[in-house]
Amino acid sequence: MNQKESNNIIFTKFIAKDLMNMVKTMGSKYIIKQKVKKNPNINKKLKKIIKYKSIKYDIPSIKLSGKYLEKYNNFLYNKSNYNILFQDLIDNGYYMYDFKLKQHLSQCGLNRVKQLYGTCWSDSLINSFIFSDKIKSRILELMDHYIKVNKIKNFKKYIDKINKKQTKLNIHTNKDQNKIFIYLISVLYSVYCEEGIRNKEATEHDNMVLTNFAINIRNLAMKKKVKNILKEENIAYNSYYALENILYIFNKYIDVKQIIRHDGMNFILDNMNKINNLYFTIGTEYTGIGMGYGYYIDFKNINIIINSNNIKKQFKFKEGRDIKDIDMVDFLTFTCTDVKNELRRKIPLEITCIVNNKKTLLN
Predict the structure, then answer these.
(1) What are the structural domain ranges in the chain?
(2) CA–CA distance from 327 to each of 58, 104, 119, 134 (Å)?
(3) Predicted model pTM
């Protein structure tokens, strides 16, 4: 373990300890009492306010700076933030602690999304787009291509205009794939270039673009009209299938050219302005590698070798089409739905694909 990893562990324990103290000293019962305290009609019946002198919040290793120092100062001088606990929380360093924590977390994904409904399958995918440097850089590269091709002068204003229209939960699903794409890039821009999808106030949900996007993805292929879109069985979904849908829509509108073409003998996957992705699936009734949702093309001339975690297996396919090569494939998405298969519990770290005797290592 290096020094950086050791410091992160210590820092995590430090935060966990403080959070436990915060739970003890700022319980819901006490907060409710303070709200009651503000009622002048019963003011005489209440006891003296308990001062938070027993605990001090601080992170000595972090110095507040930049935009977070500016936000902290603005917060202190904004009278709308004043409440019955305001001075107590300043004295014990709670607000300073809060902004220091945000400053530190901004380096490791503060901009991740916030979930409101049963859309964990969508939120986990968006978070993977945030935390994976490879897919993040690829998406940003293609979004830059989209801006230039469509001659968008101010992309921030373009995104803000989209988000302002998504301030409420849509009670009806939208199957317009172009609009779903617009929602997607607005979410990605918000988490990559701004402060993410979060609420300005804890009690308000002023941007529903992420939830509306997830609901539309979930119901994209459903033929029947959904009456209650937030009902558990209507909102739950599988992240693997959702990823296929999301990347299909992203590729469809990020660039007008086809993602795959045919030269008479082989399929060719060489569009630089798409996310070129293959899906390798091991199931109880189906095992294959192909293009996924929207294309429905499997390939038979891609041999797979898995050799990691003490597992060595080879997969050859008899059905499907031929692909020329996978030189421009960006990602390989693997899943195992067979609960009896050992790869269900031990996800391989490396997969070798062989096309026309040429080996490509994907990890």
Answers:
(1) 3-107, 120-251, 260-362
(2) 51, 39, 35, 16
(3) 0.68
